[in-house]
Design goal:
The structure holds 2 protein chains of 2 kinds. Helices cover 32% and strands 28% of the residues of chain A. By secondary structure, chain A is of the alpha/beta class. In chain B, helix 3 crosses helix 4. Classes of the chains: A alpha/beta, B alpha/beta.
């Protein structure tokens, strides 16, 4: 394989965030009647503080990605009938290090875990749960910036899962 | 090398590969997490006791291990079911946990997701989602349901699957402990 092709393969496979988002809706529950989503602020349950407001950044990203997908957002605290409340918490965030990943694959892993609950805005009944558990443990220097873009990946997971579930009949 | 010699070498090579694979399986490189590792140490007796008998239905959603590195160790249905029975027994939450015969309640558990992921060179974080449902055996009425997400990070030794095993076992322990806590808090039997 030529150097160019090798570099292309490395670029395509480098810095992938592994993990599968999961959304689980309780037996017999349909979310198709909900027309708006109230996105509560992501709670930081990691027990750590970071160089920037990770939970706040995730909250903004989830809201904007849901809006991009055509989901109507409801103001926080003003849930009315037909509003689904999304309550999420950041349980793990490790910025990692691309340099460490370059030296020893597996070392310097970037990791982000957000779990959440889908709750009826009026009754407060829990209708389902969701989880996005993503990590970047390879890719070396090609994975520079993973500490930031992993938040986009997680926010996209959540927005896709919620938007797709709302559309399901 | 003669043809007979070449075939002999090839056969020996295959035998070595098979022997290494068998040794790997025997050493527990590809396995399910054993039930005793998933049973939580419950710190206190439940707040309220449910004066009814319960049986555990067949657990679903578990995974068979494979040769994929992060799937070489998994939580299987039978193992989680055994851990669930052991946990309920230890909690003394119900009058008794029946293995045979008809019980007042049936507890169902479905493993929705199990994800071990590398969190460092010798470290793995596992997340686990389990959906629990308690039904009245006679009527089939849904008495309680809850979906619990848990996670655990654990370290292992180089060349083993200890990190995956410990993190999955820890996530299962947390999940089962939370199930007992919520069941004891939420279920009120008249």
């Amino acid at each position: 394989m030529g150097r160019g092709a090798l570099a292309l393969v490395m670029l395509l496979t480098a810095g992938c965030a592994t993990g599968q988002p999961v959304i689980w809706v309780e037996e017999g529950v349909s979310l198709s009647n909900y027309h708006a989503v109230e996105v509560r602020a992501v709670a930081n349950e990691t027990g750590h503080t970071f160089d920037f407001d990770v939970a706040g950044s995730l909250t903004d990203k989830v809201r904007s990605k849901l809006a991009e997908r055509g989901v109507m957002l409801s103001e926080v605290g003003r849930a009315v009938e037909g509003t689904l409340v999304l309550i999420t918490s950041l349980t793990t965030y490790a910025p990692g290090s691309a340099a460490a990943r370059w030296v020893v694959p597996g070392a310097g892993t970037t990791e982000c875990i957000v779990k959440g609950a889908l709750v009826d805005g009026q009754t407060g009944a829990q209708l389902g749960v969701l989880l996005s558990h993503r990590s970047v443990s390879s890719g070396g220097l090609f994975s520079v910036g993973a500490d930031q873009w992993i938040l986009d990946v997680v926010a996209t997971d959540i927005a896709d899962a919620v938007a797709n579930t709302l559309r399901k009949r | 090398m003669s043809r007979a010699g070449f075939i002999g070498t090839e056969t020996l090579g295959r035998a070595i590969v098979v022997a290494v694979a068998i040794a790997g399986l025997a050493a527990g490189c590809v396995a399910t997490v054993s039930p005793e590792l998933m049973v939580p140490k419950l710190s206190a007796r439940p707040a309220a006791r449910i004066d009814k008998t319960v049986a555990v239905a067949k657990v679903t959603g578990g995974k068979e291990p494979s040769l994929e590195p992060m799937e070489s160790m998994t939580i299987g249905n039978e193992q989680f079911e055994a851990a669930l029975i052991e946990t309920l027994d230890a909690s003394a939450l119900f009058r008794s946990v029946l293995r045979t015969g008809t019980s007042d309640y049936q507890l169902e558990a479905r493993i929705v997701s199990q994800q071990p992921q590398r969190a460092g060179y010798l470290t793995v974080t596992s997340s686990l989602i389990v959906n629990y449902r308690l039904r009245e055996t006679g009527s089939g009425r849904d008495v309680w349901h809850e979906t619990i997400i848990s996670q655990e990070t654990a370290e292992g030794r180089w060349g083993t699957t200890d990190d995956i095993k410990k993190s999955l076992a820890g996530a299962a322990q947390r999940n089962l402990a939370e199930m007992v806590e919520k069941l004891s808090r939420d279920v009120r039997v008249q």
